[in-house]
Write a structure and sequence with these properties.
It is flat, with a radius of gyration of 33 Å. The protein is an alpha/beta fold. Helix content is 48%, strand content 23%. Strand 6, helix 4 and strand 7 form a beta-alpha-beta unit. The protein has four domains: 121 residues, Response regulator (Rossmann fold, 3-Layer(aba) Sandwich); 102 residues, Beta-Lactamase, CATH 3.30.450; 71 residues, Helix Hairpins (Orthogonal Bundle), CATH 1.10.287; 172 residues, Heat Shock Protein 90 (2-Layer Sandwich). Helix 9 runs antiparallel to helix 10, helix 11 runs parallel beside helix 12 and helix 12 runs antiparallel to helix 14.
Length: 520
Amino acid sequence: MTTPLRVLIIEDSEDDMLILLDTLKSNGYQPSYQRVDNAADMKAALQQSWEAIVSDYVMPGFSAIAALEILQATGQDIPFIVVSGAVDEDTAVTALKAGAHDFILKSKMARLVPAIERELREAEIRQKHKTAEAALRQSEARYRCLAIATSQAVWTTDAQGKIVDDFPSWRSLTGQSEAAAKGWGWLEVIHPEDRERTAKVWSEAVETKAYYQIEHRLKVADGTYRYFSVRGVPVLDEEGNIQEWVGTHTDISDRIAMESALRRRAEELDIANRLKDEFLAVVSHELRSPLNAMLGWTSLLRSRQYDQATNARALETIERNARSQTQLIEDLLDASRIIRGQMHLDICPVDIIEVIESTINTIQPAARAKNISLQINLDPLARDVAGDAERLQQIVWNLLSNAVKFTPNDGLVAITLKRLDSHIEIVVADTGQGIEPEFLPHIFDRFRQADGSITRAYGGLGLGLSIASHLTQLHGGTLSVESPGVGQGATCTVKLPLLCATTIDRAHQAKNIITSDRAL
């Protein structure tokens, strides 16, 4: 069964267009398409509805950058993917900054369909956000109309601005008695932080006979504070003297809440866009660095003969950088599996001490290189858990590698395993860089790093703790991170349930497989 897809193709080559269409068809899509290769045809084509746009980077008299400008001028939000035969990194970055959603080499057409599917999902999410924001704005407009027509309290004062009469609507709204509200007593139910400002604005209005308008928080009958819009007008006699003031209090708490929600959403979108840009830069750097080292040594080994020691050092460097790049790719794949809810665990009884000791053996060379002391204290009674041995080792490795990475030379990393009732606790503490208190709430966010100037010196994508936290949750445990502050080290604590008969039974019932259905 094929899936229909409306795609606009910006391409001057008929052969390249056919390759693109074959790629879509071979992946289960039935494309409805139109090919254009100039600005006029594209503007006309955009009168129709398209789900995706695939564009060559440069053509005679036209380009992807120019096409992006035309698309953006229409205000349409359509996934735009650039496909080019050969291009350098700067060109790709230019296209992405201009608004392209992805950049794919024609030699890597296998990436096209996953890229289109990803951008279609993101476009759907963006549309939902726009719809929600439009609904908020519509609701706010509706509320404003209602606020004009209705109010929660009506009041009057004498010419000097003092309340002299009883107002049932005021008593009902605030719970304040008639006697307590008399004169300027009504100020007592204004929020303390707004009271001085309200008194000043009211006094100035009374003195200048001006229209009185203010927003403040008012303590209502249930003891809570709500936001009110207040309006007051002077009633004048024939000679222009004030006889009295008439005013209303209208509850605008819902409107204030909506505005706050919109501001928060705008801030979240700004942060998400910034993190996306930063992540693209980090991925480019982290993937390119080991490649440069491998390509450099490969070129040297091919160009001349070296002695045995140099050859060994070259191979060790190539292998180390290949492993580094493999780890980066595995982290990206794990993050993708978690986001899509496809992270699997093979559950069986696991000796957690063996897992920790194996991880320590792996991390020891890095610790010795920095003369870091490893302080190990493993409780033999906290041995057996139910879990995926490989994923448990990944959790411990992430914590230990982070500790060694961010601990300076001659520092200390302590690994403790102990039993607490029906749980075990793995604690990794270091004397390293530490974490700012403001960053701790975001410590498990994907791609989030506290200080780019610091973390760039150590490398990494900012995925380790995020993946470790999710894997720990899949094992029925928790991961927490504490730090007194920058330069004072950090402590990571993993809590996991001990192995018991019930745990084993559940593992067998699940056929030794647990699947994550939560997005990170």
